[in-house]
Amino acid sequence: MRRKLVVANWKMHGNLASNKELLSAYIEKLTSITTIDVVVCVPYPYLSQVQAMLQNTSIAWGAQNLSKDAVGAFTGEVSASMLKDFGVSYVIIGHSERATAYCESDENIAMKFMQAKTHGLTPILCVGETLIEREAGVMQMVVGKQLDTIINTYGASVFGDAVVSYEPIWAIGTGLAASAEQAQSMHEFIRGKVAAQDKVAANSLKILYGGSVTPRNAVQLMVTQDIDGGLIGRCSLNAQEFEGICLAAG
Ligand code: PGA
After folding, report:
1. Which segments of the chain does DSSP mark as H helices, in order?
2. Among 129, 167, 241, 243, which one carries the catalytic annotation?
3. How many domains does the chain have?
4. Would the pTM count as exceeding 0.85?
5. Could you read off the pLDDT of 49-83 as tens digits, one per residue?
6. Which entry of 73, 104, 121, 203 is 20 to 30 Å from 115 by CA?
C-alpha cells in the first residue's frame, strides 16, 4: 500500500509576512493529519524561512526547480547540494510552466531528475499533454516520450523511490480538472510503462495528479486506484482549502 502524498506548489507567490501566516495555518491544520505525507514547495529565497518554521513538524519542504549541473559557472542556477543545505527533501522537476517558458528539453529534465536522485532528494517529475494533444488522442504517446528519455538513459529502476505528477497542461490553473477516469487511465499507463521494465519500482512509484485540484474534486480523485496524491497550485495558497484536499487524501 503506497502512502499518499500531497504537495503544495506555491509557484511565484508569497512574501516573508504572508508566508509566515500561511505556514502557521499549515502547522495548525495539517500536522494532526498523520495518514499522509505533506510537502510544501516554495520559491528559493524562502527555503530558510520554511526550514525554520517547519523543521520540527511533520510537514516536509521542497524546491520548484534545480540545476542539471552539480557545481560551476552557471549564473542564476541553484544546485542540489545547495538545496540540501536548507533541509530540502523534494524538488519539482520539469513543471510545464517552466518547460514551456524556459524551453526545458526532455534531456535537461532527465539530467535534473538524476541530480536530485544522486543527492538524495526526491524528484517530483511533471509530465502531461496539451489540449491539442489530448484532442488528437496522442496523450499517451506524449507522456510516454517524456518518461522514455529517463528510462532509456538511466533505466526504469530510478523511478523506485521517485514521484511522477501527471499534470495535463489544459487542467493547470484553468479550473478544469481531469476527471477521475481520465487521470486513472493515464496513471495506469505511467505505472504500466515503468512496470514493463521494473515491477518493484512501478509498485513503489508514487503518481500524483495535478491540475485544478480542489477540496470538492479531490474526494473523487484521491480514492482512485492509481492516484497516490496530488500536486496542488492555487488551492495550496489557502490553508483551509489545502487542508480539505489533504483530508480527502488521508
Ligand atoms: P493548479 O496548479 O492547482 O493551480 O491548477 C497545479 C500545478 O501547477 O501543479
Report:
1. 16-30, 47-54, 80-85, 96-101, 106-118, 131-135, 139-154, 180-195, 199-204, 215-222, 239-249
2. 167
3. 1
4. yes
5. 999 999 999 999 999 999 999 999 999 999 999 99
6. 203
